[in-house]
Amino acid sequence: MRNDIFHHTPLVPIDGLSYPTLFNEPGECSGSATEITPEFALKLGYACSGIFNRISICATEHGICQLLLCAFISGAGISGAQILKNDADFYAAASYVALAFDFELTVFIENDGTKLRIHLIDKNGFPIKEDTQRKIVSNFGTNASFTITDIQVSNSIHGTKEFFASNFKQSHSSKGLAVAIRGNTSSAKVLKHTLSLCGCEIVQKEKCNLLFDISSDGLKLRIRDEKHIWHDESHISALVAYLFFSNNKKTLAIDADAPNVIEQIASDCGGRVLRIGRDKNAEETFKKQHILRNAVADAVYLCSYLSSSKEPLFSLMKKLPDFILISQEVNVKSDKHEIISHFAELKNGLYKENAESLRICADGGWINITPSRTGRALRITAESFNEEIASELCKLYVERTRHFDNT
Hints:
Layout: E1 2-3, E2 28-31, H1 38-49, E3 54-59, H2 63-77, E4 82-85, H3 91-101, E5 105-111, E6 116-121, H4 130-140, E7 151-152, H5 160-166, E8 178-181, H6 186-197, E9 201-202, E10 211-214, E11 221-224, E12 230-231, H7 233-246, E13 251-254, H8 261-268, E14 272-275, H9 282-288, H10 295-309, H11 313-317, E15 324-331, H12 336-346, E16 350-352, E17 357-362, E18 365-371, E19 377-384, H13 387-405
Parallel strand pairs: 3-4, 3-5, 8-9, 8-10, 13-14
Antiparallel strand pairs: 1-7, 2-6, 5-6, 10-11, 11-12, 15-19, 16-17, 17-18, 18-19
Helix pairs in contact: 1-2, 1-4, 5-6, 6-10, 7-8, 7-10
């Protein structure tokens, strides 16, 4: 495959165009189409190729994303890096490819309807660490100026989504269980294919009691149960953890901003939770487990239990401890990370560099503060066993965030 769309294009910014801050979120460059341009992707590829020798890259089918993909490949190819294009077209699949094939770097490009995003994922399937980001920023800032001629790149890898799906069916069977999948996104299609491989009967939603709704990035799962009650992603994650520990499993790793109720469930069942950002070996354990990494794995795990136990979902949900999460986004003028650091200095919470999230133990519950992906905003999430307490905690920290932002 040869790319010559940037034939004799100088690697310099377009007049009047300022590049955005390189990493707006951990492992993520994002911005509008006037900020994340082919020239930007070209220069980013060149910067990455000075650090990584083996790079995997994929993108959604949007025309601009494919254009950015070609630009990145051209920039990275200049330094002779081995570049393999694959067909994973949503984040969870791209992250799984990075881990399964041990690429030094996996790049995933998407248009989520609000921004263009270029994700940089390490070989463990996590966003690249801060020290790696600094190296890329340093390379990106070099004043190299050259022209692009035809660049020879390596062959593509096909079938990565099928590989992603097939790896979750190895030890799980859901024969005889009927489910419906909402939506027509790539992640929904992969979920449908995966559950079908596991033996589920995929039916129309009008004819089914269980309706699954997976987010477009493949990371979150909502389910409507037999009584037509919707359960959000936090309750589905808690249920998956409950089933895990109820099956005499002892250790489970969770993300930094996972619901605290999972730790309560582990304690009740005699298990142990390793939280990323707090506990030693949490990342190592997390990358070896399927569940709680992506919504497809969680759906397979849950369907396997529902099929074998014959217990309805609404009955299982009643076994969870009472908890509720309430979230609100707060637009801020100050730097989002400065505000999080301010709260971290005031409270003995949990700070995680990868997600830059802060967890604070409060009276009657927990507060989780994370940068929002929708712009200059913070998401405040309160967790408690009681809706009134969760609402009050959320309101309190929204007010504190606004107060600090205005002082």
